[in-house]
Fold:
Amino acid sequence: MSSGTNFTDQQITAPYGSWATPFFSRAIVKDTIGYGTIVIDGGDIYWIETRPAEEGRHVIVCRKRDGTVSDVLPPGYNARTRVHEYGGGAFTVNAGIVYFTQFDDQQLYILIPGQQPQCLNTRPGMRFGDLIFDNRFQRLVAVCQDHRKDDEEAINMIVSVSLDKTGDYRILAAGADFYSSPKISPDGKRLAWISWKHPSMPWDSSNLYIAEFADSGKLGKPLHIAGGEFESIVQPEWAPDGTLYFISDKTDWWNIYRFKNNQVDQVLDKQAEFARPSWHLGNSSYAVMSHDELLCSYNVKGFWHLGVIDVDGKKLEEIKSEFTDIWWLKISGTKAVFRGASPQKTQAVMMMDLTSKSFHTVVTSARLPVEPSMVSMPEAIEFPSGDGRAHGLFYPPKNKNYRPPANEKPPLIVKVHGGPTSSASTMLNLELQFWTSRGFAVLDLNYRGSSGYGRKYREQLNGNWGIVDVEDCVNGAKFLVERGDVDEQRIVIAGGSAGGYTVLGAATTSKLFKAGACYYGICDLEAMMRDTHKFESCMLEKLVGPYPRCRGLYKARSAIHHPDKVSFPLIFFQGLEDKIVPPNQTVMMMESLKKRGIPVACLMFPGEQHGFRGGETIRRSLDGELFFYAKVMGFKIPGDVAPVEITNLSMRY
Structure:
């Protein structure tokens, strides 16, 4: 194998896929935590922890200046907003007082130290995210989504919210379909924000505006700074001197620009991505260090780096570190804080001294001990596909205790990320190592349309969703077969959401794969156009074509209409509370396959939405997928794994 795996006589000889592993599902769920939005208040650091063991509850945690770490949010509270459904920016802090959106009712709450949270406003049907504190007017500013009229599309706007007992709100900006990233200038006199309109997503087309506050707190006439039909704007940030920085992809790559003295100029021209697509509110990939320096993170072919930009000299100096996945970057004084991870370390909240460039771990996500000798490391690969080239991260099997029988090649799982404009991460993912340590190879694919490789690469999916993504899955697997890395007869494909749609596309158009795992995947594009939420309601206009004029394409690329073309066994995983991909799509697809005699299984999870958060759900899904592959490909599973009912398996296999 090209991975250079070295086997020894002391290892147990056993077929790939049947190896015993320390990364068993229950331990992964119990000992793994995710990190989100980071906020710095004085010398105190706050962040969100997503805890599968608490059914995915989002808990606000604080590290005080003295180094003590404790939960801020009491049990029973969940700081998570549903603005745009994907949320983000669900809390902010000022002078030790925490303001957050409570998931259950989507209302704003105030948490004063030593007290219980109190509801700040009672506006059923309204959602709040991207929260910031307005010191000048002593109020909150937020992105608001108004869902009070069930028979109409939600209304988006930027609002201010009073901190008195009324919790009254005032509209600051409205009229566009979507808003994000409200940022108040250091002197409190101006507000910057981003907006965009249907049918664009924020990575297609968005605009940056600023406006001045009147003494009354209202905004004056907006001034357009940047953006347009073929330009995406991300993350405005004010410098102490009033310079406004932001990220634009007008030169194909998300690079940093500045607005100063009524002019816009590019801070640095580099073929790298300094931002991620704005699926969530509150993203932060760079921060202002001084009037002439920026601390930044940037992505080159799937690997993130840290650096300092000399703004006037237009130079970038890389900061050497082990981290290859960096997010939520913030600065306070001489310290920087960010979420960092690497191929050998799970995500952690990290602190960096800006002078010495030394790093300190604030808290780490995985309590499960991880031996480097058990960890498969990613290899960035690039391969020809269609009329272009595609990218991915290849993970060979890795387990210090096992070796395969002579001349055996491992099975391959092609993992397809969601979005579809998301990307595969290089961080140590214990769910991925669950597979590699059992003897599977994994291709974590960044198909054409993924972020991280420039705008032109993202746009290759426009009009071609369900075509080029499937093509890249097939060609990526074939590339590894030709290199001698994997067994051509044991290739499976798995993906969630948009990735699940690609799995179903592969099932109806390719005979390469032997099985597939579809997590809350889109079965019916027309139904998605009719039923999905506002944020994604027009996304298919670019990915597929204008509807209903291109209705034929929607049907041609929807697996729900082509169960007769499905060529391999499928297992489905679906949340019963999913508003993005309704469960009835999965049920209809599964029943059609049953009638056709295709081996099929399905696990439905009460209370789960789009993207699983509950620990038991994640555990059951991992074990269920493993059981399904074992039955389809005929290998034994070590340990106790709960069975899954598979219809039609005995008929054809």
Q: What stands out?
A: The mean pLDDT is 94. The two ends are 29 Å apart (CA to CA).
